[in-house]
Amino acid sequence: MIKRDFLSMPAPENYVAGLGRGATGFTTRSDLGPAREGPSEEVMKEALAKRAAQLGQAAPTAYGAVERKEEDDEERFQDPDNEVGLFVSGMNYDKEDDEADQIYQDIDEKMDKRRRARREAREQKERDEYERNNPKIQLQFADLKRSLSNVSEDEWAAIPEVGDMTGKAKRAREARISNLRSYAVPDSVMAAAAKQGELATSISSDAADGTMTNFASIGAAQQSALQVRLDSAAAGTETESSASGTATVDPRGYMTALDKAEAAGYNLPLEDIKRSRVLLESAVKTNVHNGPGYVALCRLEEVAGKLHTAKRVIQKGCEMAPRSIVVWDEAIRINRDNLHNAKVIAAAGIQQNPKSIKLWVSAIDLEKRKDDRKKVTRQALDHNPQSVELWKTLISDTDDLKTARMLFAKAVDTVPLSEELWLGYIRCSDFEDAQKILNAARKAIPTSSAFWIQGCRLSEEVGQPELCIKVMVRAVKNLVKESAMLSREEWLTQASVCEKEGHSATARAIVATTVDWGLEEDDTRCETWLSDAKKYLEQDCFETARAILEHARKVFTHSVTVWKDSAELEKKQQRTDALLSMLEQAVTSCPTSEPLWLMYASETWAAGKMNETRKILMNSLEALPGNESLYTRAVEIEIDANEYDKARVFLQVARRTAPTDRLLMRSVVLERQLGQLESALDLVNDGLQSWPGYWKLHALKGQLYESMSKLKEGQEAFSVGTRACPKAPVLYILLARLQERMGAVVKARSTLERGRQHNPNNPQLLLEGVRLERRVNDVPAATKLMAIALKECPLSGALWAERIMHLESRTQRKPRALEAVKTIENSPEIFVTIARVFWAERRLEKAASWFTRACNTDADYGDAWVWYYKYLEQHGTEEKRQDLLNKAVAADPHHGETWQHVRKDPKNFRKGIAEMIPLAANLLE
User: Where does the pLDDT of residue 729 fall: very low under 50, low under 70, confident under 90, or very high at 90 and above?
Assistant: First the structure.
């Protein structure tokens, strides 16, 4: 079968070009033949139906079908994101479609109506939040605009005129001020101008022309700067550096001086006075009845030195503002130089303002004689009978006690609600009348607690302190009934006030009845009461604190802390009998408390009661068998009493009952102090079998051999200790010193290096290494090791002290000392070193202040006391040295290299602190 060419095939029947796209056929005259009429509507419908049947679709309508947009469908479908016309069909939009659309629209409207309330509320909230964070200017001043409706015409007229605030006026004022300035030309400028153009024909031999440097003055300036910075560090203030040096600023004193000068008007510029005068004059002109304006203008003129003008201004103020009390009071004040005029002004002011208490008081102050004062006061009371201040003034001017009572009776009758007048009436009456007045006062003011406290005071004053508790019980009951009960803190404050005024029984009664008011019944009450007691102890209110602790002991009978604080209070007041009685009750209530037993024994021994102390210790050992602290205390007491055999017996019993390393150590130390070195060595060997890791026993063993001149054995003992206790730096130091003593410096270095490996960043080992190098005169090695030491331990005061005193030149000691103070704020070692530096420079006052600061910073540092005593031996009096020894005994120091060496020396074990300080001072270099 021959297939024809597509273009050569005949057109289908009823073919119309473009019919599938909804086009209609047409012909023109250019076509062959005459123009013919296009297909009819029926033909078009038939052709569309046939075409749809071939495609298997419903027959579309050519007329009424939705026209498609002219676009390339193939290209549109190639884009997966282009969904235009995706659901467009060529079907007609009929009535059912309209009904469906209407249904969907109704559903959408109903759903939108349901969500509308929440949406509108959310949108309104967002709008309110935005307007609150970004308010409009008109909203910010809305309340002020509303208040303008209440402004009267007089207030509108009283608004002052706006001054000239433009930039032009400011520039003109600045130019005027600059033109008024003048400067004196110095003589140097005149001399230079006269010599200008001259030629010098000679060379001056004077070296002060700036061509040579004065190194002495530069060194002095550096020393002065360092001195200022060290003084600033001593005073605890910061220094401010400037280009020319350093300067310390006292902002409080500077501002105080400035305020005083400005208040006196001495530094007030003339321009400020003129400007203020213009403003104030404008204020009083725009509002002639403005009393405070006249007062301000009067004071301005007074500050400016124009007293006559000030009086004229305030006089006009009295005329224009007769009802202003401040104007009349200012007029009285400024006219006090003429007493007659002041009285006339006061009379005029009172006539205009008869109810002003302030003017009446000013008028009373103008009178010098008491009779005249009372006369004016009575006139004031005629106009103001309810004024408590006037009643007090009248009564204070009355010398007769009987008359004063009558005035008080009249006063409380006139002003029955004045607590102050009732109390004054009670105080000036005898006991029986005071009781009646108290009852009347309580009826007049049932909510006042002051009357109940005054009742307690009266009972105490007449010698009936036992009634104070009863009165306070009634007070609490009545105040609770009236709902006027004070808080617990307020009651305690009232108790402290009563104690300071000499009413101790009243204070105790207040505390006993109110200290637990408002507190829940739990264990936190104990902490609260202890805190209160500490607070009032700091205020020296001992009776109040004692009453609080007494109540705490009743509630918390078995609290060791409460008993200890109570005992400390009695000890602070040096009430020995009360202290011993309290401690006896304490150990009865808390028999298993070791601190209380030790305190009881110590205080009894301090009171000189040796036998009772022994009984107490025996009882304590029965309550706490095997307690090493009690055994140690018993041994110390026997040693203090020179009963060495009893001390040995105690230690033997203790070692059998409670075998501890501490008790064994005490036994060894006792034998060593008594000179029994062999016995001590035997005890050490026995102890090392039980506690081979206790480094103190190894140290004692080596020291014992050293004392017996057995250096090799001592070296072996220390060496064994370093292997058994590698973390004990003291053993390495002792071994190195012994090796150095035997001449083995290399071994000593090796020992210290080994110790630093086991104990990195240890300042003791580093310091000993530096000292070893310094003792063998190897200063470069010592300096190098010191640099490493300060890098590893920058906060070691001992290392800084060693560097400043032994590795720095004299000129560099102060800079290094300042650097040390900045690095370590409070180091007694550094403070002592700085004092020694000043001492070497003969700056004795500075040295003494730094020694004092070192002792106050750390009273437990014994070397500070020793150095200070050595200083006073050369530059102090016997009285100062004795005072220093007393303070050192009270501090009881335990630390310090030199101090520990002297204190632990067996030769000094029977000596006190006051005896050992001079011995230690003799050992210092």
Answer: very high
CA 417/CA 3 separation, integer angstroms: 132
Instruction: Round to whole Å and give the CA distance between 311 and 307.
Output: 6
- Angle at Cα 630 formed by Cα 624 and Cα 631, nearest 5°? 110
Number of H helices, E strands in the chain: 49, 2
pLDDT at 235 over 70: no
- DSSP output for 399-415: --HHHHHHHHHHHHHHS
pTM strictly above 0.70: no
Closest by Cα among 365, 356, 377 to 332: 365
SS3 labels along 446-462: CCCCHHHHHHHHHHHHC
* Three-state SS at 92: coil
**H or E, element range at 247:** strand 245-247
**Cα–Cα distance for residue pair 492/496, rounded to 1 Å:** 6
Contacts of 874 (CB under 8 A, 6+ apart): none
Q: Hey, is 895 helix, strand or coil?
A: strand
Condensed to tens digits (0 to 9), the pLDDT of residues 523-581 reads 788 899 999 999 999 988 999 999 999 999 999 999 999 999 999 999 888 888 888 99
Asked if 783 contacts 803 with a C-beta cutoff of 8 angstroms, the reply is no
CA 148 distance to own-chain centroid: 46
Strand 245-247 versus strand 240-242 pairing type: antiparallel
DSSP string for 295-342: HHHHHHHHHTT-HHHHHHHHHHHHHH-TT-HHHHHHHHHHTTTSHHHH
Give 286's Cβ-side CA count (13 Å radius): 16
| Structure-block tokens of residue 172 | 């003109």
Is there a contact between 75 and 83 (Cβ–Cβ < 8 Å)?
A: no
Q: 335: Cβ–Cβ under 8 A, 6 or more apart, which residues?
A: 311, 341, 342, 345
pLDDT above 90 for 255: no
Could you please state the CATH topology (level 3) that the domain comprising 826-925 is classified under: 1.25.40
Q: Which amino acid would we find at residue 339?
A: L
H helical segments located in 445-575: 450-461, 467-481, 488-500, 504-514, 524-538, 542-555, 560-572
* Distance (Å, whole) CA 22 – CA 62: 6
Structure tokens at 883: 């005072």
Q: Residue 388: which of 363, 361, 369 has the closest Cα?
A: 361
Per-residue DSSP letter, 387: -
* Residue 732 per-residue DSSP state: H
Q: Do residues 525 and 519 touch, judged by C-beta distance below 8 A?
A: yes
Q: Give the C-alpha separation, 229 to 249, whole Å.
A: 12
Considering all CA atoms of the chain, what is the largest pairwise distance in Å, rounded to the nearest integer?
160
Angle at 559 (CA atoms; ends 558, 562), nearest 5 degrees = 130
Report pLDDT for 214.
54
Give the CA count within 13 Å in the CB-facing half-sphere of 523: 3
Burial 826-852 (b: 16+ CB within 10 A, else e): ebbbbbbbbbbbbbeeeeeebbbbbbe
Q: Output phi, psi for 241, to 5 deg.
A: -90, 145
Give the residue among 340, 342, 339 at the shortest CA–CA distance from 328: 342
What SS3 class is residue 265?
Answer: coil
Cβ 353 vs Cβ 328: under 8 Å: yes
Residue 826, classed as helix, strand or coil, is: coil
Rounded Cα distance between 560 and 558, Å, is: 6
Alpha-carbon distance of 261 to 256, in angstroms, equals 9
765 touches 752 (CB < 8 A): yes
The dihedral through the CA atoms of 826, 832, 834, 839 has a sign that is: positive
Domain residue ranges of the chain, discontinuous segments joined by +: 1-71, 446-553, 826-925
pLDDT in tens, 734-783: 999 999 999 899 999 999 999 999 999 999 999 999 999 999 999 999 99
CB 393 within 8 A of CB 363: no
